[in-house]
Amino acid sequence: MARFAVDTATEHSASIWIATLLSLCYSSLTFALRLWVKYGTLGTDDGMLGVAYILSYGQQASTMLGVVRGLGSEGTALDAPNQTRSGQVH
What we know:
Elements (H helix, E strand, L loop, with lengths): L12 H25 L6 H25 L11 H9 L2
Helix pairs in contact: 1-2, 2-3
């Protein structure tokens, strides 16, 4: 059975996936709850927070793309094209 991500002494992509997905879920739920509670009284601070969340989604997407391309893996475990691309994502 193949695993989605493994965590060994040289492979840390599973930890990166977990941290990224948990932060995505928790921050999205917190933002949704804030919008629900403040419905009708939203201000400039909520707009700026929305912009910050959009930027954070981009950062989380680039982290996920980096993990797919080898971020968190030992360099010798990657083939040559992915060695170059994993460092270019961030």
